[in-house]
Specification:
Number of helices of chain A: 0
Mean pLDDT of chain B: 96
Low-confidence stretches of chain B: none
Oligomer: heterodimer
Shape of chain A: globular
Strand content of chain B: over 45%
Largest sheet of chain A: 6 strands, mixed
Helix content of chain B: under 10%
Helix content of chain A: under 10%
Order of helices and strands of chain B: EEEEEEEEEE
Largest sheet of chain B: 6 strands, mixed
Distance between the termini of chain B: 40 Å
Structural class of chain B: mainly beta
Shape of chain B: globular
Order of helices and strands of chain A: EEEEEEEEE
Strand content of chain A: 35-45%
Chain lengths: ~110, ~120
């Protein structure tokens, strides 16, 4: 059971928008930043969003992050076949003194 | 370019020990915290441990507290994860990852090293 809650799967057709939710609590998302990762099998996880809504260099602006209260979301616009991957949200939890992850969302295009 | 390379994985019997190594380059290692994160087969990412840049602050996930020890050697740009009393639930790919600063999830990741626990 993950501390952060994500839907296990999501799907869309090419060109569509996709929205992945991440729900937490006061001790994690409510008071700390949210990070999002894309993970392909056999590869290193890739940082997509840091500090709730910031994109690292090289990440397309099709990917955007949003946080409100104790929830966050990753939005993928103009869905492409190469976006098929697992997506994870993460945050620091001040009560646990630990990084907590969502269970991951498998995206199918 | 940030590089993190993990090694030391392998097959170990239940109750056994293993030491993982993470060698870093491409950034100021002695100013950076390092995380270990793992992924069991068919499961999601699970945070394991964190060590502060100077080695004076360490955090552990509940599932490994008392069994795993994180340490670092800044003269060699290396972080270690000593894993004792290994269980089948500890099997998976172990990633080391660079901390972005502050108490935050990691930013750059290595490709991982595989740990199998089997008799």
């Amino acid at each position: 059971q993950s501390v952060l809650t994500q839907p296990p799967s999501a799907s869309g057709t090419p060109g569509q928008w996709l929205y992945i939710s991440c729900s937490g609590g006061a001790s994690n998302i409510g008071t700390n930043y949210v990070y999002w990762y894309q993970h392909l099998p056999g590869a290193a996880p890739k940082l997509l969003i840091f500090k709730n809504d910031q994109r690292p260099p090289g990440v397309p602006d099709r990917f955007s992050g949003f946080k409100s209260g104790t929830s966050a979301s990753l939005n993928i616009g103009g869905l492409r076949s190469e976006d098929e991957a697992d997506y994870y949200c993460a945050s620091w939890d001040g009560r646990l003194s630990a990084v907590v992850f969502g269970g991951g969302t498998k995206v199918a295009v | 370019q940030v590089y993190l390379v993990e090694s030391g994985g392998g097959v170990v019997q239940p109750g056994g020990s293993l030491r993982l190594t993470c060698v870093a380059s491409g950034f100021s290692f002695s100013d950076s915290g390092i995380h270990w994160v793992r992924q069991a087969p068919g499961r999601g990412l699970e945070w394991v441990s964190f060590i502060r840049f100077d080695g004076n602050k360490k955090y552990y996930g509940d599932s490994v507290k008392g069994r795993f020890t994180i340490s670092r050697d800044n003269s060699k740009n290396t972080v270690f994860l000593q894993m004792n009393t290994l269980k089948s639930a500890d099997a998976g790919v172990y990633f080391c990852a660079k901390d972005p600063g502050g108490t935050n999830p990691p930013e750059s990741w290595g490709r991982g090293t595989l740990v199998a626990v089997s008799s």
